[in-house]
Amino acid sequence: xxxxxKIYEGKAKILYxxxxxxxxxxxxxxxxxxxxxxxxxxxxxxxxxxxxxxxFFMSGLNAIGVPTHFIKRINMREQLxxxxxIIPLEVxxxxxxxxxxxxxxxxxxxxxxxxxxVEFYYKDDGLGDPLVTEEHIIAFGWxxxxxxxxxxxxxxxxxxxxxxxxxxxxxxxVDFKIEIGRIWDGDYMRLVVADEISPDSCRLWDIKTxxxxxxxxxxxxxxxxxxxxxxxxxxxxxLPTNVTHPTKPTLIN
Length: 253
Ligand code: 5GP
Known about the structure:
Layout: E1 6-9, E2 13-17, E3 23-28, E4 31-34, E5 39-42, H1 46-63, E6 70-73, E7 78-82, E8 85-96, H2 99-105, E9 112-122, E10 131-132, H3 134-139, H4 145-167, E11 171-185, E12 188-194, E13 202-206, H5 216-219, H6 225-235
Antiparallel strand pairs: 1-2, 2-3, 3-7, 4-5, 6-7, 8-9, 8-11, 9-10, 11-12, 11-13
The structure holds guanosine-5'-monophosphate (5GP).
Guanosine-5'-monophosphate binds next to strand 8, helix 2, strand 11 and strand 13.
């Protein structure tokens, strides 16, 4: 039996060579990590939920003209994506103070921000993904000024889309992280949303109760991560409402 080629293995996903040049298969693992992988667990069913949720968000973005790497879901844990050259920056958009921004600046979690704030973090596990400014990014050649302008515009469009989708199902989008990649078309380059969009990379709070429906449940030991992600998936119509065993979600095709 032919064995497919593994291109990269990260903390939560594996990338395999795709069926055609320029494509990859993205496999969602059940591994959950936090604090630069100091905390690690395997949470049965997480990969299935994130594959489905990322498909939902990315295909929605594609449909409104925000380009992403997503082509199609292949099965429970895998999706076909376009191969991109990942820009080594995490782009974080915040609507409400929380997490590292609250800690760094002493702003109480839950404080609404007067406008969305876009931040860049340099992707380097050894350095703990430090916050960087546009000056650093340009000086060290991680992206050009044009790329930065396009990345901010892309991130804000993703924010508008995700905020609306989540608000419609009673969830506040507090903040999120995206990664952005370059796709080359001959001499032309365009930026697309890459990696994943899921409760692993967003902060999602129930509007009525304030309950956390994201990876903070794991980071802060707040209960069952699968229950939280299943709740998000159910509200978005990605899973049927009669799921009885949260660790074994049933997918609708
Ligand atoms: P913070 O900077 O407050 O820790 O994170 C801001 C937002 O970006 C949160 O929604 C968080 O989940 C997401 N985020 C930041 N860094 C990472 C990361 O390395 N991996 C993932 N999955 N999400 C991240």
